[in-house]
Design goal:
This protein is α+β, with helices and mostly antiparallel strands. It folds into two domains: 51 residues, Roll (2,3-Dihydroxybiphenyl 1,2-Dioxygenase, domain 1); 53 residues, 2,3-Dihydroxybiphenyl 1,2-Dioxygenase, domain 1 (Roll), CATH 3.10.180.10. Helices cover 20% and strands 36% of the residues. The strands form two sheets. Strands 1, 2, 3, 4 and 5 form a five-stranded mixed sheet that branches. The protein starts with 5 loop residues before the first strand and ends with a strand.
Length: 127
């Protein structure tokens, strides 16, 4: 068994798509639009086969995304090396994203950094 994809609602589909393409080398499909409900989405595919569906529809609730809430809290991307973690963390910091931890080795042995990415969602970058 494997997780087929993870989905998240976003306010700005194109900006979210561009974020994952720019920083995580995602490949996007052409998008989907249900004209009856005005639901829109993109499927983003990553090198290892993982997929993320980003979605938008009218009248979404946009609540504060605290870091200690229940439910899904972050998406983690493994880059393959400490150097890649350092480089991407610095690039995202220079582009104005808030680095909230790291890069560092955690108590459970992961080399990672965490940033507040697109629309206030936490992204973990690990080796």
């Amino acid at each position: 068994m494997r997780i087929e994809h993870i989905a998240m609602y976003v306010n700005d589909l194109e900006k979210a798509r561009d974020f994952f393409v720019k920083y995580f080398n995602a490949t996007s499909n052409g998008g989907y639009h249900n004209k009856t409900t005005n639901f829109r989405s993109y499927f983003l595919s990553f090198d290892d086969g993982a997929r993320l569906e980003i979605m938008n529809k009218p009248e979404m609730e946009d609540v504060e995304k605290t870091l200690t809430r229940t439910g899904y809290i972050h998406i983690a991307f493994s880059l393959g090396s400490k150097e890649a973690v350092d480089e991407l963390t610095e690039k995202m910091k220079n582009d104005g994203y808030n680095v909230i931890s790291g890069p560092r080795t955690t108590g459970d042995g992961y080399y990672e950094s965490c940033i507040i990415g697109i629309e206030g969602n936490q992204i973990e970058i690990t080796e």
